[in-house]
Amino acid sequence: AQSVTQLDSHVSVSEGTPVLLRCNYSSSYSPSLFWYVQHPNKGLQLLLKYTSAATLVKGINGFEAEFKKSETSFHLTKPSAHMSDAAEYFCVVSDPDYGGSQGNLIFGKGTKLSVKP
Amino acid sequence: NAGVTQTPKFQVLKTGQSMTLQCAQDMNHNSMYWYRQDPGMGLRLIYYSASEGTTDKGEVPNGYNVSRLNKREFSLRLESAAPSQTSVYFCASRTQRGAHEQYFGPGTRLTVT
Description:
The structure holds two protein chains of two kinds. By secondary structure, chain A is mainly β.
């Protein structure tokens, strides 16, 4: 069965320093992987997606993620944090053949990113 | 583009009351979803509809019913609300192409007292 583990429930960084949010997945198939961001009291916004075209995926707002099959990881990074990056981030896997539920998403429990001035 | 819209934004119910959460999308997507979000739990799938006229249970369907009214609209009904259904509810729709990413509405914050 597929699953997603976000290794940190809370990450705190200073403005201008790098961001690393860690995610490991398990899937029996070649998954699609996503990162979504949720600002306080808002809906979820797609940051980036991996579909096997390239292992390094660039997203919006300077974020990127690298798919590493050998490590079953899909960590999210950003070179320099901005105050507006403070939000909750969700790593998500879509397993196309999961139980016949085509395209259903499995969410990690989320990582709350705090950015200090 | 409106994308995915949800009504209402907030609702307070008493135990045993019923209500329907409305969702509509204008992206011509076939698949639509209802999730609930609870602190520390991520999002959990309640029901989904792969196409107009079909619905299926997700991870946590108990206490809910859904209706896929047409291609645009997918409603979630609580027949007899319970305090355990206090949550934030999100509707989403999914592209048919590429990575099949889902697009989310702004959410409905429901409190059951």
